[in-house]
Amino acid sequence: MEKIVLPEIENLHQLDVYLNNGGYTAIRKALSQSPDDIIDQVKKSGLRGRGGAAFSAGLKWSFMPKSTDKPKYLCINGDESEPGSFKDRQVFEFNPHQLIEGALITCYAINARKAYLYIRGEYHKWIKLMQKAIDDAYENGFIGEKMKEKYGTDFSCDLYIHKGAGAYICGEESSLMNSIEGKRGYPRVKPPFPAQNGLWGNPTTINNVETLTNVPPIINKGWEWFASIGEPKHPGTLLFGVSGHVNKPGVYELPSGTLLTDIIYNYAGGVPGNKKIKCVIPGGSSMPPLRGDALEGVKMDAESLRAAGSAIGTGGIMVMDEDTDLVKVLARITKFYYHESCGQCTPCREGTGWMLKLLNRIVDGKGSSKDLDLLISVANNIEGNTVCALGEAAAWPVKFMVTRFRDEFEAQVREKVELEVKNKVHSMRSTETPITNITV
Amino acid sequence: MEFKFTEENLQKIDRVLEKYPVKQPAVMPLLYLAQEQNGWISVEVMQEIANILEMDAEDVLGVVTFYTMFHQKPMGKHHIQVCTNVSCMLRGGYEIYNSVREKLGIENGGVTQDTKFSLEEVECMGSCGTAPMIAVNEDFFENLSKDKALQILDSLT
Fold this sequence. Notes:
The structure holds 2 protein chains of 2 kinds.
Chain A: H1 15-20, H2 26-31, H3 35-45, H4 57-62, E1 73-78, H5 88-94, H6 96-110, E2 114-119, H7 124-139, H8 146-151, E3 158-163, H9 173-180, E4 204-208, H10 209-213, H11 215-221, H12 223-227, E5 237-244, E6 250-255, H13 260-267, E7 277-281, E8 290-291, H14 302-307, E9 316-321, H15 326-340, H16 346-363, H17 369-382, H18 390-404, H19 406-429
Parallel strand pairs in A: 1-2, 1-4, 2-3, 5-9
Antiparallel strand pairs in A: 5-6, 7-8, 7-9
Helix pairs in contact in A: 3-6, 15-16, 15-18, 16-17, 16-18, 17-18, 18-19
Chain B: H1 7-17, H2 27-38, H3 43-53, H4 57-66, E1 78-83, H5 86-89, H6 93-104, E2 117-122, E3 134-136, E4 139-141, H7 146-155
Parallel strand pairs in B: 1-2
Antiparallel strand pairs in B: 1-3, 3-4
Helix pairs in contact in B: 2-3, 3-4, 6-7
């Protein structure tokens, strides 16, 4: 199977190797066409965003206003902070020039002259690798003023890295823009959308790293070629990051629509000790978890996963075997969203804290089955009531984990309560409390 | 204690400012430079950055407190970050965290008395496919076991 985003070519991260493999020919081809033609091709290719929402990339670009004198910007989202996601770092490490080329073509299409690549701060090593590629590209005239001479056009574009500093929320597009602007990373109320009112109030497009890395091959090989790969409604390959209880965790680039079981058992080598799977989160920790007995026939693309009761997210597949304590897993997931809630909206700021308290109580063996209903109620009160999607990201795992694995949560609650009662009786016997006062 | 950027860093700041149409976006890059030079973000650091970028010091403080990677107190020479998020947790992340915590004798956010180590339980670092992991300052160590993690601590001088 052909790899589009991460071709298996040795040292492809080096500029000369990239050039020897057809690198920077797509931007030349793009510059000989009109920006509208480029947008049209990307629209027809069916390329959809790889950052979670799976929105049509070409359609997003077409929202950029044409009749304005304001400067336009491209932001490239490499914040990659969703637990279970580790795909963009592969692009920074193994194919940085294709990302640069994709960003330049996008800038041309939306008439932007500056692009900011936002990379999470913890990725020190990958920021250095990416910066090296950008420096080499500048030096050789592939980015910046020298482009004009190289391609004989009046288009040129700058590309800068903006380093994040440890805030999950900055992967949310409006929060990312606030972070670039040097502010606290609070999400903005939408509308206005970034295409109208983005960076410093100017028209801005935000695309994920993997999305843009797909653009040069689309321009070079044609939209028909891309549209024919994988599932027609969500075409192309996807980078699936498989983690947790599998023998060969890692990133696998496969056509959209590949069977989830195929990815887990054939590519990721199955579950250690041939254990059964209890639960799989198919798209990063904020996506609804699937039961291990409901994985048969589930295909990995946006529509198929929606039909199966989850979502594609960032394609981060987390596998949990039969011995996994899902109550602890859910408490850990909730701790994450509690920690990362920016605190701007009350339902999310307070709700994530309440959910965490309830889950910790259940983990500690002090929960009751009423707590399970309360958890779902809190989750429902967060969902849809916040400025950004972190509310859903926090609510969905709780709501769906408790609902789909209710038996497991009930068992834990009941078991722990019974245990507690036994202990109470025992401890009372050892004291001189009159037997008549014992109530259990 | 008064804080001034070194000559070398002042030159870097000039290059950072070229990237943006206004000054404020440089606040995060400058905080990184200051943290590298000073070890942590003091009130004086924030004041100096506010002066350079023509911002209110309160707004700089707002940025510092929003992002977890800016430290408002001196951390250890080796800042040990252990991920305990789900993918690491499933493969022994908490075992590593607890053994590192016991070995160093400090809690989350703590610094050892000799200031050699500090410890932080961190959220997902994007090493899920190579879990579990720890990071020492800027370097990732992946595919770890408890023993390997403790060996790494022993090797740090």
